[in-house]
């Protein structure tokens, strides 16, 4: 748990702060990662304050003095660095498990059928479906997010895009089966070698592990959002670039 950084950003103290204390707080926030390496003399000089003001500010933040504050900042920096690196490694792993070579044909079909596009996703994938529909609206693509099997009856000439992280969700499989029975073209953003991938007309796939026994892993959507963002970015680059720059 962070001990200092949130206080520097929020600054919800039980008394008003002085101008010199604000200068110290501003300096600590602006040079947060370097503070553990620096002396109180250097900080006082560069923030145009005094050592007494710095110690008073440390007490304002809940510490006995600058030495204790400096140690707490070091703990925050170590935690911040480890958390950031963890998220970077996680994102890099997911990117490495996405088959971006498939996306151009996928994007081309989305563009060609942009006036007749349905999107379907369940649970966390429904949130991703709503996100994708919102992003498509910025291009004037009125994609419709559907939630019930019966809705397909009114849109048989449309393309159906299924979002499913696992590619094996039963209701998604039922939706795919109904769409194929209605001779609809089915796109999917889903897992490699899954049933939905195999049965779709065109699929954009990932190979991120999904642990069926782990609710957090099952519901994680970062890789799906990365894939959706790539579709949106390629639409903009390949088909809407001139529209975006001409206005």
TrEMBL record:
InterPro entries xrefs: Homeodomain-like_sf, HTH_RpiR, RpiR-like, RpiR-like_SIS, SIS_dom, SIS_dom_sf, WH-like_DNA-bd_sf
BP GO annotations: carbohydrate derivative metabolic process
Domain HTH rpiR-type: 4-80
Domain of life: Bacteria
Keyword Transcription assigned: yes
Gene Ontology MF terms: carbohydrate derivative binding; DNA binding; DNA-binding transcription factor activity
Domain SIS: residue ranges: 106-242
Family matches, as PROSITE patterns: HTH_RPIR, SIS
This protein's UniProt keywords: DNA-binding, Transcription, Transcription regulation
Pfam families in the cross-refs: HTH_6, SIS
SUPFAM superfamilies per the UniProt record, alphabetical: Homeodomain-like, SIS domain
Name this protein carries in UniProt: RpiR family transcriptional regulator
Species this chain originates from: Halolactibacillus alkaliphilus
Organism phylogeny: Bacteria, Bacillati, Bacillota, Bacilli, Bacillales
